[in-house]
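Can you give me the bound-state structure? Components:
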Amino acid sequence: MYRYDEFDRQFVAERTAEFRSQVARRLDGSLTEDEFKPLRLMNGLYLQLHAYMLRVAIPYGTLDSRQMLMLAHIAETWDRGYGHFTTRQNIQFNWPKLSEVPDILDALASVEMHAIQTSGNCIRNTTSDPYAGVAPEEIEDPRITAELIRQWSSLHPEFTFLGRKFKIAVTASAEDRVALRLHDIGVQIVRQDGKAGYRIFVGGGMGRTPMISRELRGFLSKADLLPYLEACMRVYNLHGRRDNKYKARIKILIHEKGIEAFREQVDSEFATMKREAIAAPPEEVSRIAAYFSPPALPDRSEEEAKYSRAYQSDPDFAAWVQRNTFEHRTNGYVAATISLKPIGGVPGDATAEQMRVIADLAESFSQNEIRITHEQNIVLPHVAVANLYAVYRALQGAGLDAPNKGLVTDIIACPGLDYCALATARSIPVAQAISNRFASPQRQAEIGPLAIKISGCINACGHHHVGAIGILGLDKAGVESYQITLGGDATESAALGDRTGPGFGYDELPGVVEKIVDTYISERDGDRETFLQTYRRVGMQPFREALYAA
Amino acid sequence: MLLDQSGEIEDHWPLLADGNSVPNAGYALVPLARLDEARDQDGVYLGAQVPNDANPETLSQHFGRLGLISVDFPSFSDGRGFSIAARVRDLGFTGRMRAEGPVIADQFGYLLSCGFDEVSVPDDVAIRQPAEQWLAQLDRISLSYQRGRSGRTSVLDQRIASAG
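Here's the bound-state model for the whole set.
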């Protein structure tokens, strides 16, 4: 994985020192609160309902054991012993003190981490495929491109005071594991006439006006990536709306202007800009690529006998393997998902102790590498099948063995009213209640893949628009009311969910979800038809009848 | 307060007041709307004051006639001016560029990097953030991943140089 050189290190050190001085200048009155706010946001520091929250960047969701150990240390030293992994593959600490934040940033810098641009109206953490370097059908490792974008977008002088936040995702697989079409810009690595290049999507997003992105460019040569992105950003920065923050995302600009007019402007900008001054030199691309060359994994398929015995004798292990492992391009290896969704747990939370277990496992069994997924889970990307049982047993001992990846209890939920100042309703307790309702592993297996996503307000941090079952918590005259959508999909068949009808009360929710699930089970055409397939075939009607019939 | 990389500087460009006619000598900063009228006064050294929704392409027809382009920043958080400067420079303007409005010291490096030479801030900003804070900001951040337009080399260039 990528390693800082002296320049990256100095860059982060200077930025940390700068933030320390900004805190001091806020305290001595040089900066007003209004001036300080975007500066602190660009350093990852939010003011939440009860306390500050610090969001730490995990570029494209990749980190190593040493970094995970530092996150555990931070959780214990400056927080309440846990952290929360987010849908942007980052981690949030919910209880830091403002005066201690510069110390936390120093601690992060010591392991090549920071909180730069995890918030604010700038280009946020670029996300990527958690199976980068693993997936057999991948064209190349998308993190090379993501790292190029990370560097280019870090404190970009022109794009640090945008109209609104800006999110970019990169994938190199046809199977979409990054919610590509729900990003301001989605970069897909594709092959054309034997050459790898980029397919660029623009104008996707969730929030109060969800939109699926449009294709902006079918094929862009690799050398043109950064100039082309810069042209897109410039057109957005100059022409995006500034009169209303709810209409300031690029999706609204594309929607109002039309994709053709936007493309024309980008092309004209691109044609006249000094592209060679912006593009990364080939030496730099090769330097970055070298960090992502595949690890040397010896073929260990010979040793799988031990694994087979465990697989046959321990049915819980077998269930976990079936559910939580992903085929690796190297024989004898898998990528193993560590679910952060134990039954009744808080989605995405991990204790310091659990982070240490994960760090140790990565060091011993996964080439020292860890990935965070946008579903708020963790992946050990390179586990020899021969070691899988040892990994599983260690996870079991730490409460990290939930065999539920992609199932009804693998719920995405935003922090909601338990933490967030913007929330209009609770979401974590909703996730917990649903998880408890579907606790039985047999029942989860019977239901099959089903993505439930819960947001505690219209800003949609819990991605409810793209949940097969989406739940949006609103405030109706002081009472929590939850709107249900069905049929949302964040993958290559991206779709926004449709509303079932009037909302439901907090206490009704587990029952409502159960009715939806029961309707699916009775409507499905054989047990291989997934919830989304059934929904697309039969439509809303049977679900609506089940939910609203007197 | 008007300042550039060297600190506080004198302002040579008096703003042409409403109702006054364009002089035919010395310096004059004129609003974009009066540029067509002003450019015929060929004895005056001309600057243009432009709002941050101005179209740089339209402005480019006046480049040869302008010594200064001053871009309005209605608020420090409205970042359109950064792109206007970058675009104006890409289109070949070689005169001086000014950012005018309540921008803050923390943005000085970004402004220079986008092609501005100088910054004019209102008194309430200047009182809280005297010139020393602006210069200190430039010293604080020495590295940038982007080449920019202020003469600094980027991290990418430095890597190549250090690899020899």
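A couple of observations. Chain B touches chain A at residues 53, 76-80, 82-84, 86-87, 90-91, 104-107, 109-111, 113-114, 128-129, 133, 136-137, 140-148, 155-156, 158-160, 163 (CB under 8 Å). The helical segments of chain B are 35-38, 56-60, 80-90, 108-113, 123-128, 131-140, 155-163.
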